[in-house]
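User: quick one
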Amino acid sequence: MWQIIKNEWKFLLRNRALIGISLVFILILAASVYLGSLQSKNQTQQYESAKDHVRKQWESIDAMNPHSAAHYGTYVFKPSNLLSSLDDGVNSVTGNVLRVEGHVQNEMVHSEASQMQTVSKFGKLKGSLILQYILPLLLVFLAFHSVSSEKQSGRLKLLVLQGAQPSSIVWAKTISVWLYGIGLLTLTVLVYALFNPQNISAEVLSRTISFYLSYALFYFIVSGLTVFFSARWQNSTIALTSMLGIWILWSIFLPNIILTSVEKLHELPSRNAFQAAMKEDRSKGIDGHNPSDERAKGLKQQVLQEYGVDSLSQLPINFDGIRMQADEEYGNKVWDKHFGNVREVYARQKQSYQFAGIINPFISLQNASMGFTASDNLHHQEFLLQVENYRRSFIKQLNDKHAYGGSKTGDWGWKADNAFFKSVPDYEYQPASLASVFPYYLTDLLFLSGWTLLVSLLLILGTKKMRVI
Amino acid sequence: MRELNIFVYEWKHFSRNPFKVVALLLFVLASVYGLHNGANLYNEQTSEIDKINQQATEGRQQYLAYYDEGKKGPDNRPWIDLSTPFWAVWYSEIYHFKTPSPALVYSVGQAEQYGFYKRVSFRASPYDADMTKEIANPERLQTGTLDFTFALLFLLPLLLLILLYNLKSAEAEQGFLQLIEVQVASKNTWLLSRIAFYVVLLFIVIIALLVYGAILTPVFSSAFTAFSQMLLYSVLYLFLWSTIFYFILRSGTSIMGNTLKMAGVWLLLSFIVPGTVHQWISLVKPVNLMTDFIDVKRDQRQELFQQPDSITKSQLNTLFPEIVDSPVANDDSKSNFAMNRSFAALENELTKKSIASIEADNNEKNGLVKSTFWFNPVVFFQNHFNSIAESHYDDYQDYRREIQKLIDTQVSTMVLDVWHDVKVDKEKYMEYSNKLSRLP
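Assistant: Done. Structure below.
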């Protein structure tokens, strides 16, 4: 079999058109990875500068009432992910700026896609665009006549007469084409490493290996299936058109249709309904800004009792801060319920979409690629959760300062000093580790492996009775 | 007559090729699915607008009831006084909508990237967080909705590829191309006639699909121009690909070579060129993190409140010369309060300045995209289809401008009436509701 693979490669290397195409392809791939890395670096610089700008503003607060500072708030910008130079995922549609303030969990705004007219339906020229859409097509063009041309030229019969097993020939052809894909995939990863040597860590390495593995499996599926068609059908044109049809179905048609259907199956609330439901639930809780609110009065009694005093003026603390924090904690329950529901719907949508990998391995590849490069919705939601947790601790620090910082109830003119504001920690994003999210992508890897097995079986069983002429 | 024979022959060739027939059916199915997606979005947005209008009317009724009951506002919010212009304008419950065009059935475009309703207040801005898109799965947004234009832009060339890939080259490979040459006057006319058959076939299919779309939403009654424009641009797009493929087929003699070239051009124009342009623009004009806008909304707003009253008064006088001799301006006991109420006008001016820079930045990006249209036809057509369906960036930009005009009206109404010490009663509140919801 290795001899056949060697011969195949010799034959491929003699093909000037293929060498030309490969060179152009390598150039585009290298350029895409380079431009992707450059963009990530630019974005990181921009992110750092915006982050510093906002932090400086916070640290330069000379003196301010802590609750006014909660309304002043801060902003969190979505950091660029290093691996997003390989796959941009959902980054261009999710927004980049999140306001962190008291009383409310905000949503991310100002997405890149909303800042200009439509440019590219399939995203930027990143490694993933080429590796997902174009390279498989190239493999199809390499493989579709690999066996049928041997039949037509009579070489297949000759090989069988010389003792080669038809299945070995088919496997050798598959592996030859697959190795071509693997070569370009390896090159992509190497170029990526070349442009980002300082950022290579165990985490990046394990994510890149998983990314690599997913593509390697997919390329085997495409190569194997095309060679199978080439072996089964006398006419290579039918093999080509069948694989083109499959490629269109897998890459263009089904992902779009399935995702749209999945969104209809697990419906998300409209923004208006979502906001109205939160407003309704929120109105049932304590209103931090309204001392005459009945629930605030109840809390007042509880605190007075706790401190063993009769009136707010006798309290050694500022009850306004406690009321604000109670308002916040009630609000948090409301946000958890409603934002939690949305997250659950997203999770169900993702799960259903992942299961579509049974009929379309491209979907599994897309999910795995985005997931391993940390640019899918799961990682985005993880980022939003981290920011919300930060918001809660940020506001609590301000409310605690308001309550226990030395002021008395009703003293809205009291101000915390600059040292306090400087002591409030800035938001630091902790990227999710692969180990913590890997189970989510097992379904995708499982389906890719299942398809690999299925194609292998097709190659073994389906070519046993292959006609050699 | 000879051309007619070629058409008849081609029809037989097409109808006996199940692969081509299935490809056409799949295209029709995808287009119908896309049209339904567009119609669903149109219906969803229309129904959401109706719901919000209903909620706004109910809200206004609630506030009108306070006037009837002689109350200043809700009991649990004693600081609200609906007899003052400040609170009456604040609670005028004005919404502005980006009403979907019935032509949305054809092209969803960027309709899912932006909000289509906005509660307008004198503290609002067209770049507020509530101007963001509807809640949607980001992965679906990234993949995009399969709408009719998706089928047209990306699947139509593929369908054409499947229908045309073996034209002439099949005869050449089977060795009877020379035989055909002696039978027809010109080989090129023969090829052109065969291609023309498929162009006519697809033209009929496109018309049928456009008419089907027009049945799903009131295109004929409300957006007939959009229908004719869609038809025109769809046909132009069909001609573009037919011409490209004609030249490929004319010059090539092998099925594989022709298919490879056709698929290559499709990949180039649909993926590589738009993807490269997108990447290039991201590098030249990176995503705007809106720090200028943030500064206005936060620090510069704080500074406004901290500036001396004399500066605030002078800024207000410049903006509204009518208040210089107003009754409140001459009453020291009321003028400070009126000044506090009028900060929204100064904030609005600051916001407008920062928005101008955001929009200039976005316009530069759009200029860059437009400058590539001559070698980026798919994106050119995509944006044209979006414009026809009123789902283009520019349509949402117009919507933002309308919102800004309504904000300006609210600001000036509120400020002028505060300084003229206007007392708001039920009639005045209703007058506000009417006046503030109309675009100047």
